[in-house]
Amino acid sequence: MKVAFVTPRYGVEVMGGAESAARQLAEHLVAECGWQVEVFTTCALDHITWDDVLSPGDSVLNGVTVHRFASASGRVPEFYELDGRLRMAPSEATLEESRRWLELNGPVTPDLVAAVRDGDAEVIAFYPYLYYPTVMGMEASTAPRVLHPAAHDEPALYLKVFDATFADADAICYHTAAERRLVQRRHRVAQVPQIELGLGVSPVVEGGRSGGEILGIGDRPYVVSVGRVDEHKGSSMLAAFFRTYKKRHPGPLALALVGPRAVSIPDDEDIVVTGAVSEADKCDIVRDAMISISPSALESFSLVVLEAWEQSVPVVVNAMCDPTREHCERSGGGLWFGSYREFEAVLERLDADAGLRALLGAQGHAYVQRYYQWPQLIRRYATFLTTVRRRYESACA
Amino acid sequence: MLTDDPGPSDMHGSDHDDHDAGRRYLDEVRRDIDDEVRRRRASGDLPPDVERELDQLFLAHSPLGGRGAALRDMLRLVDASVFIDPVVPVESRRPGGTTVKRGLRSLSLWYLRYVTHQVSEFATAVSRALHVLDAQVTDIRRKVDALAVPPSAVVDVGWAHNPDAWWVETVTSTLASGGGRALHAACGDGWLVGALVARGVDAYGVDPRSQVPRPGLEVLDLRVEDVGPHLGAVASGALHGVVLSGVVEGSGFVERRNLLQGAARCLAPHGVLFVHSLTPASWAADDAPVEADMAATRPYRARTWLRVLSDLGIDATVSEGTDGRDYLVTGRLRGAP
């Protein structure tokens, strides 16, 4: 089987998010199924500017053939004015307005779309729904199209320009049941062949150091939040909550924000912001944490939650984030907060109750072992893609 | 059929006693936490302005339609914002900026105070109205919840729901002769979907029961979903066939009507609707499934379907099983005029 992935960014430099998920699926299809996999992508690494920083052309990364195309334009300043206007009532925006939004958001990649159209892949996976390469690539493609929406409840989901993207998909691959419910509230696509897949958890990379040593806090207990330190990811909110918590609960507990910085967090003796760290350091930090916190309300899957459970670390998530809350509800591996008051009560309870922490960690671990191991997961995905191709062939016959 | 777990949707199997015990304990923990939050909120141990500021931070990047959203929480933010402060900040990075701003503020304060007072009055009135609305909606929801009838249980009878049952050949041969996608609800372990796929039908199934074993690999497209909401999320005219078995017997009038309207909407012109049902006599017999006792209603008599489906624009015929225990309704949606 020859599969193509279309995704706006691709490479080891791209951390987290839908594009990273696409790379994991592509590489596991090559490694575990022996399939031929190619990727159509841009030369960008930054999802805000879409600047071309990598060279266009073909290369091979971990067995996957990567075709890179320069963008005709990235995100342009006019985008913000239009975005601000449309997000007030996105479903009221006209098709023309929302198509304009798509183009201003970038990356506009007509060469990439032409290459997708002229390619010979038997199935094409588009990941995520939000950008020009997916919308225009799906329009142009003649092979069966599998849409990985990676959708969360954001204004863009309601723009009319995406109606055809969802309606024309030959199959849909969701991260979670919550994502499926969200998409089906907006788009009538329940009849489309689909799968609820998610992502696998990679084996833990031991670095051999203690988390406290890496963070420079010695033996102090700490809670950790892994991922881009960003306003939109809830990092500032978490830091503010934690500062208030510490004022009301003095003690040694610290907070570690582990990930590249996109927002500045005010200095605080109880908060450590590491910036980007190695995989081994990240695993060591998470392993020794009392709790892993996912403060973001806008996740469509959240691998960091599963990575904490892989190491039997209990998690606390944002109650407004359906996918992470669903992970917690189904696994029994975590708690959630919907306000500062709840955050305080949850943290206080977990801090004081080692038995509860152990139970949550064990249940989360069992959940990950059962559903999110790569060998089983990639076998399900490969079977799904095969049935999508067969369905397409029988429809053409 | 394989019986591996295809995905986390079917986590809650009956063989997970330890998991259930853990879940009950966590429910207790959640209740304790909720009680503690209520107690502390009532005690006022956190300054209201600090709590509001933190809540605003929390909601700044929250989706509008998240499951955790509660009107009462939103109202706390509204309350925090009803007072419009006419005394604007005057800090400035530019030399003399603060003095200029302070002067402008002094000159315009009489005007700003007049305007902001009216805006604050209006916001207060709106906030009060929303609180009244919240109280009334909460009251109505409590009453409606008490009256709500849960979706009827799927009726599973082995003698009628298997690939060798008398009515299955009619369904598979009819759908195999047409083209297009077909839905089976409630699909159980995929016994009919498998038979349809084997005949070349592009079939899939949904079933609200999470504990039914399903194939481990996605050879068949089977999903754990409630039938009514699923039909509501299918594109109009997208299905060539809909097969309902085990889902109409125990459903109440409104639920049954919604199911049928949903199915009719999903059908393409000339699409086929099959309804397999137990008969009222079978429903009343000693060996009736236990759902018969739990249901608020009984199955329609076979001929009633002709009238019901006709009203939905579907021409129907009925075939009865030889022993009078069940029947199959075959309806075809009339084409567009």
Structure characterization notes:
The complex is a heterodimer of chains A (397) and B (337). With 397 residues, chain A is an alpha/beta fold. Chain A is built from 15 helices and 14 strands. Chain A has helices at residues 17-33, 78-86, 95-105, 110-118, 132-140, 163-167, 177-186, 211-215, 235-248, 279-287, 303-310, 322-331, 340-352, 354-371, 374-396, and strands spanning 2-6, 36-42, 57-61, 64-69, 123-126, 145-147, 171-174, 194-196, 222-226, 254-258, 271-275, 291-294, 315-318, 334-337. Chain A starts with a strand and ends with a helix. The model of chain A has no long low-confidence stretch (mean pLDDT 94). Chain B is built from 11 helices and 7 strands. The two termini of chain B are 44 Å apart. Classes of the chains: A alpha/beta (397), B alpha/beta (337). Chains A and B meet through helix 7, strand 8, helix 9, helix 12 and helix 13 of A and helix 1 and helix 2 of B.
What layout of secondary structure does this protein have?
The complex is a heterodimer of chains A (397) and B (337).
Chain A: E1 2-6, H1 17-33, E2 36-42, E3 57-61, E4 64-69, H2 78-86, H3 95-105, H4 110-118, E5 123-126, H5 132-140, E6 145-147, H6 163-167, E7 171-174, H7 177-186, E8 194-196, H8 211-215, E9 222-226, H9 235-248, E10 254-258, E11 271-275, H10 279-287, E12 291-294, H11 303-310, E13 315-318, H12 322-331, E14 334-337, H13 340-352, H14 354-371, H15 374-396
Parallel strand pairs in A: 1-2, 1-5, 2-4, 5-6, 6-7, 7-8, 9-10, 9-12, 10-11, 12-13, 13-14
Antiparallel strand pairs in A: 3-4
Chain B: H1 17-43, H2 48-60, H3 71-81, H4 97-147, H5 168-177, E1 181-185, H6 191-198, E2 202-207, E3 221-224, H7 227-232, E4 239-245, H8 253-266, E5 267-278, H9 280-284, H10 291-294, H11 304-311, E6 314-320, E7 326-333
Parallel strand pairs in B: 1-2, 1-4, 2-3, 4-5
Antiparallel strand pairs in B: 5-7, 6-7
Helix pairs in contact in B: 3-4
